[in-house]
Specification:
Layout: H1 3-27, H2 32-50, H3 58-81, H4 86-92, H5 96-107, H6 114-136, H7 143-166, H8 171-178, H9 183-193, H10 195-201, H11 209-239, H12 242-245, H13 252-264, H14 270-276, H15 279-286, H16 296-303, H17 308-311, H18 325-337
Helix pairs in contact: 1-4, 1-11, 1-13, 2-3, 2-9, 3-7, 4-13, 5-6, 5-7, 6-14, 6-15, 7-11, 8-11
Length: 378
């Protein structure tokens, strides 16, 4: 990955880290399944009317929408609604990174380097430690939100693979058209699970402080979390290997946990923070992908500027046709005879492509021949 792409990946991590606080505020007002449908419906309507199609096969648009839009947020919002802490959710959801690396190796045949394998193993150890700690607290009642969030991470990984395979020429269009997929299935799930009465309650008290904060959180998730963050992420996935981009999502918990503590006053237990420290090594070990060409010395030789002889292009000329030889000899004689004469007027070539005058015999010579017959443009 280039330095520019790494910086963009860090920007996405900041946007998505703050996104968990915005989701928490919105869930205080709206039920989870309906909130997912509402989030994407706000984008889907203008997309269908105004945005050109993404120019990729529809199966990848559908795969991206189902994985990234439906599965990820269905399980994430449900987990946060049933008690998943905001900061911890930002950490556990990054299980998408090792899931993406592993699935890319199995399904896309992307080569998994030893560095990436070590990063995945370290990240899984940290994730397993958090799950064990949660299973021991309150008789294991807090384990369910962790498992639901893990399912969301798996959905995100599937969306990453679809984005990688799509290779969209316009990643932002792909992100916008992806938002067309989740609204209808999520609205159907909301009507079946949450019911119309619970949906109606979400629209009461929108002018109160919690209601305004919920609307502000919804605006943030739409404009920053989805349009800006997902658009940049899709662009990164389209021009870099999935296994190189995905580990940057592990930086999201750093922002998410800090923002949850600073803005919501939500503490994170010491064991969870300790196990969470295992995620950062996974990020930095997975983001360096070996390029084709082998070792560093080989890449430096490839990047070495060419020498003067190599950098100076060799001029190749076409041989003068045999039929030109007599006329070329006459032209040279005329040039020698008129060396001290007045400048010769420019003439045009005949239909045969001769560089002499139109008479083809004793007329003046085209000035092109003053250079060389070998440089004739004809």
């Amino acid at each position: 990955m280039s330095t520019r792409d790494r910086l963009l990946a860090c920007v996405v991590a900041v946007c998505w880290g703050l996104n968990f606080v915005a989701i928490h505020l919105s869930l205080e007002q709206f039920p989870p399944f309906f909130l997912v449908a509402l989030r994407f419906a706000v984008i889907a309507v203008p997309t269908v009317l105004l945005v050109p199609r993404p120019g990729v096969p529809w199966r990848w648009v559908l795969g991206y929408g189902v994985g990234f839009g439906v599965l990820q947020f269905l399980f994430l919002y449900l987990a946060m609604a049933v008690g998943m802490p905001t900061g911890l959710a930002s950490l556990v959801l990054q299980s998408s990174a090792p899931f993406t690396v592993l699935l890319a190796g199995v399904l896309l045949r992307e080569r998994l380097t030893g560095r990436q394998g070590l990063g995945v193993a370290v990240a899984l150890v940290g994730l397993g430690g958090i799950a064990v700690h949660r299973a021991e607290v309150d008789g294991g009642t807090l384990l369910l939100p962790v498992l639901l969030t893990l399912c969301g991470g798996l959905g995100w990984a599937l969306g990453n693979l679809a984005t990688r395979q799509a290779r969209a020429p316009h990643p932002l269009r792909l992100t916008l058209w992806m938002s067309v997929v989740p609204p209808l299935p999520m609205l159907a799930a909301s009507l079946l699970v949450e019911g119309p009465a619970r949906i109606g309650q979400g629209f009461t008290g929108l002018t109160s402080t919690p209601g305004l904060l919920a609307l502000g959180g919804l605006v943030y998730t739409v404009l920053v979390g989805t349009l800006l963050g997902s658009g940049l992420w899709a662009a990164l996935m389209s021009r870099n290997p999935s296994s190189a981009v995905a580990p940057f999502s592990m930086l999201v918990p750093v922002v998410g946990i800090g923002a949850a503590w600073a803005l919501l006053g939500e503490p994170t237990s010491a064991p969870e923070l300790a196990w969470g420290r295992w995620w950062s090594p996974g990020c930095w070990s997975g983001q360096r992908v070996r390029r084709t060409g082998g070792s560093l010395s080989a890449r430096l030789r490839e990047a070495k500027p060419p020498t003067t002889a190599e950098s100076t292009p060799t001029r190749t000329t076409k041989p003068v046709p045999t039929c030109w030889a007599p006329r070329a000899a006459r032209a040279k004689k005329q040039i020698a005879a008129t060396a001290t004469a007045s400048p010769r007027p420019r003439t045009t070539t005949n239909q045969a492509g001769c560089c002499c005058c139109s008479s083809g015999s004793t007329g003046t010579v085209c000035p092109v021949w003053d250079r060389s017959p070998m440089s004739s443009p004809w």
